[in-house]
Amino acid sequence: MTFSIVARCPRTGQFGIAAATAMPAVGKLLTHAAAGIGAVTTQARINPYLGIDGLALLREGCEANQVIERLKLTDPCMSQRQVAVIDKQGRMACWTGEQCLPWSGSLSGEDFCVQGNRLTGRDVLEAVAGALDRTRTLPLVERLMEALAAGDSLGGDRKGESSATVYVVDQEEYPLWDIRVDHHSDPLTELRRLHGVFEREVLPEMLRMPTRANPAGAAEEDPV
To answer: DSSP of 175-211, one letter per residue?
Structure first.
């Protein structure tokens, strides 16, 4: 795998995940987040149930570190996994198994955690964390984009990247942003292009969609 981010925006309460990797289609299995609940990433030798069960534990009221400890009891191969959790209070917990490919580890900051394996070095995570710190006034989706670019500029995955993703939940059970590049020779450049397309053409539609508070959504002259 490569490097990923879990983060919470203290201004909006949004939770976000971003990742880039040499493996195709990283977004499908790594990203697990729920509005008002928290976010979980699972990587290295991916076990999707760590994300699925991690969110279930957050919904039960477990704190981030409790989630990691309980997940350890469910997976006999935790030595090959990386997991990061952020809960609704912004508390974080990370796990890197001793069999993850070097360089591997994690780095936490205020309302975020970055983690990676098979990296060129710790400096990749330091660059990602630095970008998240410098961009605190920006919307969460833009902070995640800048952080991915910063990690990539330091080498990212030693095998290069072929896929990337940004996933953000706001107040509804469906995501506000779900941008994926499943296979591309320059996935971060393509991700930035798609972000522009999404911002112009998809986000306005998302903001008119039904919500729990307003099941009808906004009136549309030209329904999709």
So the answer is: -SEEEEE-S-SSHHHHHHHHHHHIIIIIHHHHHHS--
